[in-house]
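Chapter summary example: a protein plus zinc ion.
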Amino acid sequence: MFIAHVPSGYILSVSLLERILHAPASTSAIFWAGMTGALVPDFDLAYFYLVDHRHTHHHKYFTHWPMFWLLLLTVAMLWLRFDSKSRVALLSWIFCLGCTLHVILDSFVGDIWWFAPFINKPFALFTVQAVFQPWWLNFIWHWSFAVEAGICLWAGLLYRRRSPMNKSMKT
Ligand SMILES: [Zn+2]
């Protein structure tokens, strides 16, 4: 997934805000946790290009292992369960939700090692054929890019719906 990670984090944050009553964190902190989490696994691209020199698919790094994020998500959830007033626990849980959402969305048309580190086998819901050069054009011209555009549009509509409220908020 290329362009829809941050918008998906925005949608996640809005849906959580609509469900969490009396959150021990500000609205803006919840947005930052959700949107940053939805992007953070791709920070491993810096290691991929600068250190690993593209030797290993970056989805093989632990930063793209669903089990890693699900483990942290479980820890954050337990923390929040025992200390429901904790701001850090809530934001950690939302951050981990964003990271988990990232790897789920990556698995749409990209290989994700769902059972790493135990099973070395990638899974993808759909496969993008290598037809064009450079490689990223294959994703841009694939039908799945319409789904990405749809997520961006959905986030844009949500933002527009919330914007009068945003202007009046002091958080
Ligand atoms: Zn990714």
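Key point: Residues 5-161 form one domain.
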